[in-house]
Fold:
Amino acid sequence: MSGRIGWQRIARRIRVPAGFVFAALFLWLAHPSWRTMAASLVLVFPGLWLRGYASGYVKKDSELTMTGPYAHTRNPLYLGSTLIAFGFAAAAASWVILALLAMLFAAIYIPTILSEEAYLREHFAGFDDYARAVPRLLPRGAGADIELATRGGVPVERVFSTELYLRHREYNSAMGALFLYLALVLKLLFF
Structure:
């Protein structure tokens, strides 16, 4: 196993626990103000919306999702997480947090995305065409002109599924964001 493959596997496994550790560090280093918290909403709300929207389309490990936000970016969940995280960095008003966050995202999310792409390439024959048509992270305005999944030769147009949203428990992102905002308010008021 090469070092790159090994780190991709490690990065995939530690990304959630690393997020909790970073949240504790974040709260310790944060210097929020009412103004920075209000400004952060410009990134946090769209990030939460994008994660929620994407979770209502994706059928993990069973199909290559190419509709909804996946027609604009191959990684809408990670893009949403990035918006949320950097929104909270703005709320914290700390250059240290911003720098640490950028390093954490580079060390964890880039290898995770590459690892997931290798998995998708291996398990879904249409992934290479999809990857050529749709950007990895930063979306473009118009959706990709790619062949959608077909059922009996007829294109299948997928729509947002509340059932998928609930199954993926994406509401936890909104609850986590609410918790962080409450913690920042408490820090602002009492510390």
Observations:
- The chain has a mean pLDDT of 86.
- The radius of gyration is 18 Å.
- Residues 11 and 107 are 7 Å apart (CA to CA).
- The beta strands are 150-151, 154-155.
